Batch of 2 targets.
Target 1
Amino acid sequence: MPASRSTAVRRAFAALATLPLLTLAACGYGSQAPKDDVAQVAAGAKKIDGLDTVSIGYFGNLTHGTALVGIQKGLFQKELGGTRAKYTTFNAGPSEIEALNGGSIDIGWIGPSPAINGFTKADGANLRIIGGSASGGVKLVVNPDKIRSLKDVKGKKIATPQLGNTQDVAFLNWIAEQGWKVDAQSGKGDVSVVRTDNSIAPDAYKSGAVDGAWVPEPTASKLVAEGAKVLLDEADLWPDKKFVITNIVVRQEFLKEHPDVVEAVLRGSVKTNAYIHAHPDEARAAANAQLKADSGKALPANVLDPAWQSIQFVDDPLAATLSTEAEHAVKAGLLEKPRLDGIYDLTLLNKVLKAAGEPEVDDAGLGAE
């Protein structure tokens, strides 16, 4: 491969690690946020494996709703007993992967692209995906005065969050399926793909700098609040309308040394998702309360409500869709074909699901031996 092409692929591969990052403080991309909190432990509660604390990372955004609700309602700490849950928020996939690699966190909620990137860069030696968390929550929203049908997207300026991120790859793949041509690196072609941080996407839309955006929630609903219309929900492009947007990952060393602690966190996650399904209004309010606690700012109802409704909270990591997302990145020329064998270890999740009377989930042939 020529040096220039190799460099471009490496840069795009690095960009792929950044996910839909909807941190409410900045609504964009950046380094680790300053929050660093330790949950309160009930008096007399026993530690698991004698472990004092488990460090857990997540993003302050709605696609990490399982973490938001579980923390706000104390469901993780309840399962952990006397082992304290120490929480750290992030606003970028690379910074969370760096923290995981460095041992600053043990378990984290994170999206598919940084999980793939973290796994492949470490030659499969550091992280494992141990559970699912969320599906969906990504939409193509457009200016209805300029775009009235899908065919009208041709020739228009459409924003995505960042070169090579999950939504950018999905949009490039959709463009190719229409038979249109776009240079993945420059974004130029039959459609102008304008890489625009979520923090400025609403202003870019209001100013007319872009005609629409392929973005995750709550950015999509923020644009709708500015007058945009939903032209396409990405879920409609996937079998059963499901595709992975958030997973749970763990350091392999921590998994080996403290499987009971990992199982407790997974049990908390499964119970949190059950709570979300049984009490949707209360769960939505809890997620918003945690967002406010993390960032100092809650989402208004006209953004929160539609954004929350478009996200499905699931225990299944939807492994087959992870492989498909990686294939889309390869087809777009943004990623060299990765080896994903062993990226999943769903043993403990399936144990928790069985105990809860729920069906086991599949790793699509990508499980650890």
Target 2
Amino acid sequence: MMAMLSANAQVMASLPSPTESIEVNGRKAKPVSAWVDFCNRHAEECAVDTNEAAVITMTPNIWKQLVQVNRKVNRDVKPVTDMDHWGVADKWDLPTDNKGDCEDYQLLKRKLLAEQGLPRRAMRMTVVLDEEGEGHAVLMVRTTQGDYILDNKTSAILPWGETNYVYVKQEGNIDQQWVSLGGVTSPTTTAKN
């Protein structure tokens, strides 16, 4: 209920409160193998255009776009495991049939936001350990207000430090190489499922 109230309040907010950006240590990390397969099938979704901005200038309109896309995808896509959906342990794909798991939600959010003109380079697929220690994928949006997380577990967009996640790695914004986030733990425990 609290996440829903936060999500509703976010629609009314002109801008989110500023937050810190996560520190990316720059060490290379092995990409998720299902990501590599996804990129082989959808090269346009994985291409890095270094002419795009690596950070989005946050405006009330951009915030509204983020909130609306996050809520729409969370509402429209039905959760299903990759094993039940595809018969494999891990497959990243766009949920064209409105079914998917965590990374599928985030890939669709990024696609829709990029179609609205936001730079894909500032929207990074990110692997975390969730509050139960399980692997989970979120979309980190790097902005001038800080780094925010779009997640299928809540329709509230949270600053990265308020998710109660351990940040493992994310796709790089210079090339297709992934980078380590060094297992940075978010400093608070405010996230609710």
